[in-house]
Amino acid sequence: MKTAATIDVTVPENRKLELELPPEVPAGKAKLLVMVEEQPGEAALPEAHLVERDGFLLIETPSEASLDDFDHRKIRDERIRKLAGMP
Questions:
Q1: Where does residue 66 rank: exposed (0-12), middle (13-18), buried (19+ CB within 10 A)?
Q2: pTM greater than the 0.70 cutoff
Q3: Which residues, 6+ apart, have CB-to-CB distance to 5 below 8 Å?
Q4: What residues does each domain of the chain span?
Q5: How far apart are the first and last CA of the chain?
Q6: Which helix (H) or strand (E) holds 60?
Q7: Which residues, at least 6 apart from 57, have a Cβ–Cβ distance to it below 8 Å?
Q8: Residue 12, helix vs strand vs coil
């Protein structure tokens, strides 16, 4: 049987968390998934949908969105600086 627990936390600047899991979570191997909520002031990406055409899986975006909006490389350097603690 799989058990899931959702715990709301605030990640501090040092990125260290101490968790106490609820009693319904059994001891043993587990996977921890961290989902970060959208931060105020961050631009959300336009909504996209996966569609299958002729056996290929494609990304379909709204007409006003460009695939450049989904290019992670544009913000890679900024994220690396944040992770390294640099301004």
A1: exposed
A2: no
A3: 21, 22, 24, 25
A4: 49-83
A5: 45
A6: strand 56-60
A7: 50, 51
A8: coil
